[in-house]
């Protein structure tokens, strides 16, 4: 692709992420996204084929930007396996804070039944394999409870997602104490204790 085409495609994706995060797949229109990106809608169809293709590309672009497992975090986990849960959850919280559109797009994708999410499989397979290796080593060393890896990772992903996506209602149902430290650090530490042997 020529540099101008790459820039145009990126403008479209950035606008799509914004509009889809705000309105969801059904609520957003290609016309709105074209207007926000300052392109005609034929350009969107030329690059992405359909509104569905654009939504999937926007979701993948957002997913790819969100660094759930930084090299620094993986090194910290390798050096301090007993803190694995706290470090992972803290990293997930930081990722959600840096990109609030991420959990909104995930919510819309789940609510509206996006048909093809297979690109997300490829986006995280390497990261998940590395976390699995560190998890298995921590379990073998007696640093983490021997639970199923997928249950473990699901729990951490669910807690971090729910913390941000349901914050407003949780403050009213659980009280504000859970959110009083501002960054979820206390919750990360407490959940770390849950998984320690």
Please count the helical segments.
11
Shape: globular
Task: Summarize the biggest pleated sheet.
Answer: none
Oligomer: single chain
CATH hierarchy: architecture of the largest domain = Orthogonal Bundle
Mean pLDDT across the residues is 87
Low-confidence stretches: none
Backbone structural class? mainly alpha
The level-1 CATH class of the largest domain:
Mainly Alpha
CATH topology name of the largest domain: Tetracycline Repressor, domain 2
Helix content: over 70%
Give the SSE string.
Answer: HHHHHHHHHHH
Number of strands: 0
Rg, Cα atoms, Å: 19 Å
The percentage of residues in β strands lies in under 5%
In short:
The chain is an all-alpha fold and 197 residues long. It has helices at 3-27, 30-37, 41-48, 51-65, 71-79, 84-98, 100-111, 118-140, 149-165, 167-174, 185-195.
What are its keywords?
77% helix; mainly alpha; 11 helices; Tetracycline Repressor, domain 2; globular; single chain; 2 domains; 197 residues; Arc Repressor Mutant, subunit A
Structure overview:
The chain has helices spanning 3-27, 30-37, 41-48, 51-65, 71-79, 84-98, 100-111, 118-140, 149-165, 167-174, 185-195. Helix 1 (3-27) crosses helix 4 and helix 6 (84-98) packs across helix 7. The protein has 2 domains: 3-64, Homeodomain-like (Arc Repressor Mutant, subunit A), CATH 1.10.10.60; 67-195, Tetracycline Repressor, domain 2 (Orthogonal Bundle). The longest helix has 25 residues, at 3-27. Helix content is 77%, strand content 0%. The model has no long low-confidence stretch (mean pLDDT 87). The chain is mainly α and 197 residues long. Residues 6-66 form the HTH tetR-type domain.
């Amino acid at each position: 692709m020529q540099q101008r085409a790459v820039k145009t495609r990126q403008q479209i994706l950035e606008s799509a992420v914004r509009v889809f995060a705000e309105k969801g797949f059904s609520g957003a229109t290609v016309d709105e996204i074209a207007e926000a990106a300052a392109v005609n809608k034929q350009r969107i169809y030329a690059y992405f084929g359909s509104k569905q293709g654009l939504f999937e590309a926007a979701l993948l672009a957002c997913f790819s930007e969100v660094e759930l497992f930084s090299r620094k975090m993986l090194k910290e986990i390798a050096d301090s396996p007993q803190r694995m849960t706290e470090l992972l959850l803290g990293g997930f919280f930081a990722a959600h804070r840096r990109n609030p559109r991420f959990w909104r797009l995930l919510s819309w994708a789940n609510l509206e039944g996006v048909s093809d999410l297979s690109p997300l499989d490829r986006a995280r397979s390497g990261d998940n394999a590395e976390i699995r290796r560190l998890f298995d080593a921590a379990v073998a060393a007696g640093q983490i409870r021997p639970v199923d890896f997928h249950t473990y990772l699901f729990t951490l992903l669910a807690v971090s997602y729910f913390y941000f996506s349901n914050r407003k209602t949780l403050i009213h149902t659980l009280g504000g104490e859970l959110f009083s430290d501002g960054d979820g650090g206390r919750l990360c530490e407490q959940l770390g204790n849950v998984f320690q042997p």
